[in-house]
Amino acid sequence: MELNVVIDEDIFTLNVPDQLLQQAGSFFDKMDADMDQGIQLSRQWVENPQLVQRLQLVGNKLLTALETEDHQLGRMMAAYMLSRAPDIDRVYLDTTGEIDNSEIQFKNTGVEPTFGIPMMQEQSGQQTELRDRAEKMVSSVFKQGRLYHFSILDPETQEWATGAAVKEQQQAETLREQAVQKKMRELE
């Protein structure tokens, strides 16, 4: 299997033998058991990490492995990602230290499912209300110079902060959707 990884402007295609996916199953189960205890994502502690959060954390380990040329660790982290989410299309790894800004893009959709749960076709009235409130706290994507941005409103200070600065509009739209989903969870 192949995993496409985007780091800044560079795209890497990592080949992971199917045999490794099968042989490392118990190692991956151990990783999951460790993550079941909670994980640190950037500045927040996540007690019950969902699929996408686990993939973001493992993606950060993959980034470290690629930077230090630790091919064995890199291969294992790529294999974990493919074993847990074989429909991954691309992984956009954040290089600024904000692990939760890494984007996991799945095949055929272009947008990641929220925490590994398929997005509902119809939202309940409560979800619609939450989404409307969250949408007001996250600006639309806009282009400034050569980069695409969006802003997020801090409800405590009532100030807007930049939520992304990326070169591709699609990536900015995906990151914006993640920010809206995060705001919806905060508003629940």
Largest sheet, spatial ordering of strands: 2-1-5-6
List the uncertain runs: 109-124
Number of spatially distinct domains: 2
Content-based structural category: alpha+beta
Strand content: 25-35%
From the spread of the alpha carbons, the general shape counts as globular
Sheet with the most strands?
4 strands, mixed
The number of strands is: 9
Span between N and C termini? 38 Å
Notes on the protein architecture:
There is one protein chain. This protein is α+β, with helices and mostly antiparallel strands. The protein has two domains: 2-106, no CATH class; 125-187, no CATH class. Helices cover 41% and strands 25% of the residues. It is globular and about 50 Å long.
Sum this structure up briefly:
The chain is of the alpha+beta class.
Features:
3-stranded antiparallel β-sheet; 4-stranded mixed β-sheet; 9 strands; alpha+beta; 25% strand; 188 residues
Furnish the topology, listing elements before pairings.
Elements lengths: L1 E6 L2 E6 L2 H6 L1 H11 L3 E3 L2 E3 L4 H17 L3 H14 L3 E6 L9 E4 L18 H11 L6 E3 L2 E8 L4 E8 L2 H19 L1
Parallel strand pairs: 1-5
Antiparallel strand pairs: 1-2, 3-4, 5-6, 7-8, 8-9
Helix pairs in contact: 3-4, 5-6
